[in-house]
Amino acid sequence: MRFQLLDIVFNPPHPVTGEAVPPSDRLERVVQHAVLAEELGFDSFAVGERHAGDVLSSAPTVILGAVAQATHRILLSTGVTVLSLLDPIRVAEDLATVDQLSRGRLEITIGKGNEDLQYPLLGLDITKQYEYLEENYELLRLLLSQEDVTWEGRHRHRLEHATTLPRPFAGPFRIWHGSATSRFAVELAAKHGDPVITANALQPRENYQVLLEHYREQYAAHGHDARYGFVGSGSGGLFLADTTEQAVEEYRPLYEAQVASMRRRGYDPATHVGKALSFETIEEAVERGPALVGSPERVAEKILDYHRSFGHVLQSVSVNHLLPPAQQEDVLRRFAQEVIPVVQAEVTTDLWTTADERRAKGFTALVPATAGSASR
């Protein structure tokens, strides 16, 4: 299995102390974590994108440009490029710039985003978010793969003889599709033979599993090469301690604050599927939900358990930014040293190896010391 560290760059005040981290410090920490992830052997580092709320990831390509210059080996990604909101011309230009700066170490994930307030903020109609996503994706594919593009759609002006610069480092970089609540995203991915990443952050696993099953059915129906139908999975937060009981107690205040924050925004699990936490307590999230909170042994066991349901070969994790910086780094180190080897001993994959001919041209994953059962 491959592993990714994701930062959406949330930056609300601490729910207990009220302390706020200066934006410059928070952004600096993103780059520091990317460097640490590379040092620890993570395969990928991803930065999210949001344009509303206490979040500092409104300009992810700027952040990734800084990360590209601070790192040398690790694959770079977008936790999601909210393509429904964006001009594909600027997306192609910005991301190809990152691809060049990193010398071909870029793959991206696209989606409609999980923040409703982004649409009125940017003057867009949220009821057309899937129309925007499909049209912008079709145009982005053309712009990355071709020069002298002439194109016409429904939601933006006609293009004539358009060539975006810079061009990608070594041909179009791979595009993953983020999936959380709708069949639309997985159907779009399957239509074009692209891989998917299930959010797996807020809901019971069954809600995500049904979308992955539909993706695989549609992928096969379109006749695509099964070797490239890769699936990734997110998680509901990462926290490690010597015992699961200790981890639950230490993480409880942060989890309860997250639940309270969503409730204040009016996000109810019954009416806001995919936007509200489905698990009221940390115990529920650990026992039945996607939270990776526990001892290293328990977290490794849980990833493997979810793998049996999802068949995923990429695991994305996020460490809570409200933890003290030294504790954030300790969690990441323990995860790299005590969890990743256990999982990789059981699940192997061709993703990002020399067998994966569609991988980012500037990146090849390290071969784990252990070998287990191949899982695509």
UniProtKB/TrEMBL annotation:
One GO CC term, this protein: cytosol
Residue ranges of domain Luciferase-like in the record: 1-310
Keyword Oxidoreductase on entry: yes
Gene Ontology molecular functions: monooxygenase activity; oxidoreductase activity, acting on paired donors, with incorporation or reduction of molecular oxygen
Protein's name according to its UniProt entry: LLM class flavin-dependent oxidoreductase
Superkingdom, taxonomy of origin: Bacteria
Originating organism: Xylanimonas allomyrinae
Key words of the record: Monooxygenase, Oxidoreductase
Pfam families: Bac_luciferase
SUPFAM superfamilies: Bacterial luciferase-like (SSF51679)
Entry keyword Magnesium: no
